[in-house]
């Protein structure tokens, strides 16, 4: 501390030293004459100097105001030790008597005793100067409690950045809680990415709090794909089992290139071969459902002929691959696509040989765009009644949950985030409380947008609508 005081400069110390005396004063009087100094005060002034550094060390910014302290000490007006030294000197014997009487009074009065201890404790506390204390350790810190005069040692655990990083990584991939108390019979999920491996789709679904999920089994925009490796298939099956995803709640989606109703022979043959290959992948992965867009006649053949071609392609695949159910998705009646009207779905089903392996997935956006006003109070009920009458609810295997950017009957396949489209939150409230949608996968296919960067937000929203 003495070194620190000297390092702060001598300009603030020299005037005080002239008053307080000592050997340093005698050496400096040649430069700084002080006619007010008195040699008779040497003993008293040297006693007071012993306390001066401790008292002044608590003033952090003393060096910032040297002129103020210098002028006050020189004038003897601030009540400082230099000013007190000018008072009449008290004999040593009288000082001892006064000190004894003071100690007796303190011992007899607990409050005074406590205050006395606090003062002693306060004098021992020396806060580090922020300008000079650069080598401080955040891990440990000793201090004196000024109120209770008890020495405490606070140990601050070193920050384990590695552990924190690991916790952050876990939080990013940790599964969100499912929703056991509300919508327990609803299995809401989303279409997730397979980047990094097919098994990552299950991990991502768990992370966002999904109870079901959809995925592509290959590139959705290419006719060619690598054969499915058995190790990849085994890892996918094991991951789904470990995370609790049953095959009935996993809905793979066909590539967009597939068109089983195409009038072009090359596209028709490629589409048939692709369907067989995809059903084989499902079988290796332990999946039992496979969702397809029925197809398009591209304006070159009657709709009835197109429906027959689609059914024929499905029958061909069924004959080569057992167990997997093909799920027809309703369309929005856009362009030359088929399947937008329930009668067209029924027309395909009528030509299927094994009807136990055919089903339907209702897309809310497509249904709305095709003319079913799900935003109205009775809109959902009316649609389901019509579906049951024409197709049959026994064929309903899954839902695609999407709001619509277009108005009812617009025939545009434009998905929107839940509650931001024309169907609206109230329309999906009816969907989430419809008992006929229990125990089937309900898959979100909404776009990423502000406020909906993650499917978990919409999953939480949908479950919050359950009553």
UniProtKB/TrEMBL annotation:
The record, for PROSITE patterns, names: AP_NUCLEASE_F2_1, AP_NUCLEASE_F2_2, AP_NUCLEASE_F2_3, AP_NUCLEASE_F2_4
Endpoints of the signal sequence: none
Chain intervals for the UniProt region annotation (Disordered): 1-182
Entry keyword set = DNA damage, DNA repair, Hydrolase, Metal-binding, Zinc
List where Basic and acidic residues composition bias occurs.
32-67, 86-95, 102-113, 126-140
For this protein, the record's CDD domains field holds:
AP2Ec (cd00019)
GO MF entry, a single one? DNA binding
UniProt xrefs under Pfam families: AP_endonuc_2
- Domain Xylose isomerase-like TIM barrel, by residue range, is 204-460
Q: Name one GO biological process term.
A: base-excision repair
Cite the SMART domains for this sequence. Answer: AP2Ec (SM00518)
**Which InterPro entries does this entry report, sorted A to Z?**
AP_endonuc_2, AP_endonuc_F2_Zn_BS, Xyl_isomerase-like_sf, Xyl_isomerase-like_TIM-brl
Annotated family: Belongs to the AP endonuclease 2 family.
Database matches in HAMAP family: Nfo
Provide the protein name: Xylose isomerase-like TIM barrel domain-containing protein
